Amino acid sequence: MDYPYSNFYEFLAAQAKKRRRKVALFVDDEKITYGEVLEKVDRLAAFFSQRGIKEGDKVALFLRNSPEFIYAVFAISKIGAIVVPVNTFLKEEELSYILKDSESTALVASMVHEEVVNRSNAQVQCELVLWEGEAPKTDEKNVGFEEALASTADVPHVSRSLEDTAVLIYTSGTTGKPKGAMLSNKNLLSNIEFARKLIKVKPKDRVIVFLPMFHSFTFTVGVIMPLYVGGSMVIIKSLQPFTNIFKQTLTKRVTLFFGIPSVYNALAKAKLPWYFMWFNNIRAFISGAAALQPKTLDAMAKKFKRAKLLEGYGLSEASPVVCVNTLKKQKAGSVGTAQYDYQIKIVDDEMNELPFGQIGDIIVKGDHVMQGYFNRPEATSETIVNGWLLTGDMGYLDDEGFLFIVDRKKDLIISKGINIYPREIEEVIDLFEGVAASAVIGIRDEKSGEVPVAYIELEEEADGYDEASLKEHMKKHLANYKVPRQIHIIEELPKNATGKVLKRVLKEKLKNA
């Protein structure tokens, strides 16, 4: 790929020069132009520099969705430091772990997270805590954003190269402790270019950002990409009330809607007013983070005739987008195809490439593959082999290069030597009336080695759930050995911030039952 810019600050400055008066950010009733964004970024960069933050330092962001998140990212880029976006759903012990592990010297946090921040190690680990909103206390270490933006000094742009680390993003930690994936400027700019070309993103596009900005999917395609192309971003600070998302989508004339399966499940069922259906400007819905249910794809296609719902696939270690269905061609059940300089292979345990249609390990290669895990050379060498990223997922490619995900390798259930893929069972269960979502895990069994167990979350309006009928439904669609031995109804499946089910929590629950 060709790269017209080497880092984030370069393209923001270029867009601000070209589109100074254009609105870059919509926040409720406020409009913030490119010129205003750049001015605040420059002021914040000067403040960081005055406080001793220098090239290569780590600055952690524990921020809600806000313009301050944007200003911080680009100010950090200007001084050559490294952004560490942190999941704001974490508790103080988890935040403390990431601040220490990343060696962050500064933290930018929202006042709504004051309690967690102050119970963490932030005041000891970090030399500076910058608060979005009024600082809870004013001293040498704690500063409010208004004071920081009052800086009138100017600092030169530290021009970091494409190969330099720009972001340290922590994996969700669905197993074990989170690891910091080192993403270079090239990794992220490559991913932005890939997504831009596939979705055909133009300066006239407006992207709505209601998913957490700290997540790799939102960070790359929701936060960075719109500003890279000279488009606009509609920032939603809170998911409550959910109707505000529809209101902002309509009134701000949003064209690109980035969501996760739970959002599309809700959208497919929602009774939207006729004027929303008639006047919305959405041309594409993009889904990531977890698998879409077939019934959601069907319902969305029937409901929105003028917009395509494009399912994609990625992981933090790949910046994160690996592939996506295109506007020209979509395949039900597929997460799309890799194009341009990206490659996907399906291999066996010896890394031998498998033919089309055969299930194996998914490995990927391209400029989007991370540099490695921060301070973890062994984990890096296990995950990146000869330039290929081992995703930990299993799937197959069809003869047109479309990827179909089968399951996580670690979730594979082996019963009497036969592979059972939990996702296949979940898709059958999800089709049963009254089921909102399901998760299948494997448990030890003396005779079979492992057997499947299902956890089911029912829809609110589900009436008279019948386990016998569900088992009959499963037996019609699945081999007997795939039918779960146990079925547990659960009020809500445990999920991470982007709706991915935490199966380790379910396994722990079963173990302690």
Strand content: 25-35%
Gross geometry:
globular
Question: Tell me, what is the CATH class of one domain?
Answer: Alpha Beta
Q: How far is the N terminus from the C terminus?
A: 53 Å
- The CATH architecture of one domain can be given as 3-Layer(aba) Sandwich
Strand order of the largest sheet: 2-1-11-10-12-13-14-15
- Could you give the count of β-strands? 26
Rg calc: 23 Å
> Low-confidence segments, ≥5 residues, pLDDT <50?
none
CATH fold title of one domain: Rossmann fold
Q: Can you count the helices?
A: 17
Largest sheet: 8 strands, mixed
Give your account of this protein's structure.
This protein is α/β, with parallel strands linked by helices and 513 residues long. Among the domains are: 35-181, Rossmann fold (3-Layer(aba) Sandwich), CATH 3.40.50; 412-511, GMP Synthetase, Chain A, domain 3, CATH 3.30.300. The chain contains 17 helices and 26 strands. The strands form six sheets. The chain has an eight-stranded mixed beta sheet, sandwiched between helices. Helix 1 runs parallel beside helix 9 and helix 8 crosses helix 9 (216-229). The longest helix is centred in the first third of the chain and has 17 residues, at 34-50. It is globular. The relative contact order is 0.09. The mean pLDDT is 92.
